[in-house]
Amino acid sequence: MVPVVVLVLVLSCLLLFSIGRQNSGRRKLPPGPTPFPIIGNLLQIDTKDITKSLTSFSKVYGPVFTLYLGMQPTVVLYGYEAVKEALIDHGEEFSGRGRFPVGEKCGKGLGIAFSNGHTWREIRRFSLMTLRNFGMGKRSIEKRVQEEARCLVEELRKTKGSPCDPTFILGCAPCNVICSIVFQNRFDYKDQNFLNLLEKFSENIEILSSPWMQIYNLFPDILDYVPGSHKRVLKNIDDIKSFILEKIKDHEESLDVNNPRDLIDCFLIKMKQENNKESSEFTNEGLTILASDLFGAGTETMSTTLRYSLLLLMKHPQVTAKVKEEIGHVIGRHRSPCMQDRSQMPYTDAVLHEIQRYIDLLPMNLPHAVTRDIKFRDYIIPKGTTVLTSLTSVLHDPKEFPNPDKFDPGHFLDESGNFKKSNYFMPFSAGKRICAGEGLARMELFLFLTTILQNFNLKPLVDSQDLDTTPVLNGLISVPPSYQLSFIPV
């Protein structure tokens, strides 16, 4: 009897605390649906399609509103004006990383993806400088991507035009680009360690985009004690870190401070330079987590984009025909595409932009947080409050993109057929937290796709009109449905 009474008292106190906390916080924050105690607005949100729920709330409460995800208030910014005002006009104040429990457990406050404050600024500066100055070794990043594109083509030739699921092969190429930057060396597509690494990245993205992970991120302290796929994510991350740590040990033994070969060497040199500092972000653990972040951000996101790209190109054969015509005119058949070609290929450029706009890879972006109390549109957002920026609402804005749910490269072409930029193009986010690898991602998308289309015709197994492009998951990222195709050599 006594344990039951104690349990009732504890739950009652928790309930009263939740109600009191929500009521006091809501006086200053933007409006939003009334939350339930403890679980907040969970029952009012479709965890299988959160973006749809955000659209519905925006129609009632406007472009700035508050949701309670559990007992924590989260401010949601919906539409270009609100997102731009926060991330660009008030970039410093909105540059924090918001609450994302599974990321925090993996990153431990280190790395580039889920760190904050001084640590984030130092590691981001180092990462950008290393990527920008990547003349280390004897090859530029572009040459590495071109080499990987050729390897990708050779691997696709081995299918001999037979139907195949491209998921695995399209995962190998971007992962190898990151490997060459971080480790210096690429892997053979049949290397077992490489395959294990790919499998863990792929599994994690699928789990992180599932409804279960949305629930876990609301109640991590409780669900940590419950079996579930969140434990698989953490186990996979530990295995990835162990793999990276072995590479770091190899690099330590062969390091030449006067001749850095890759990102690991650059980081180890920085560690030596800061050896006398009392505290430094440049530690072995920091390097392991940074490398893990780069793999996580640069492998599955690009792999998924490439997979979605081929699906859309098959769905719209008239678009593919125009891209192939432009490739033939500008590049021809006998040399590899290079980044200089892009400026002479406005239609292809428009298609690549439209692919990224249409697929809406990161519907809600990674969560931001305000770094200080800020007055935003007559509301007070307290320091540390998590902020969600709806990239869907920007990329699918009907004022900027007529018929936003229709795949149309004309969204990025003017009346003369020249490429037309748009401030609404934010697939990499915007402001201080814009993706550090944006330049690399743009390069990979252009070089991989043009090289594939230069060498193959894409043949779906069903009529192009019957291909379904609706994402099967869209929690963290939008995951396309599985499909097969044949790569027919030209």
Automatic annotation (TrEMBL):
It is a peripheral membrane protein. Heme binds at C435. One of its GO terms (cellular component) is endoplasmic reticulum membrane. Residues 1-20 form the signal peptide. InterPro entries: Cyt_P450, Cyt_P450_CS, Cyt_P450_E_grp-I, Cyt_P450_sf, Cytochrome_P450_fam2. The keyword Protease does not apply. It holds the Pfam family p450. Keywords: Endoplasmic reticulum, Heme, Iron, Membrane, Metal-binding, Microsome, Monooxygenase, Oxidoreductase, Signal. Its cofactor is heme. This is unspecific monooxygenase. It comes from Dipodomys ordii (Ord's kangaroo rat).
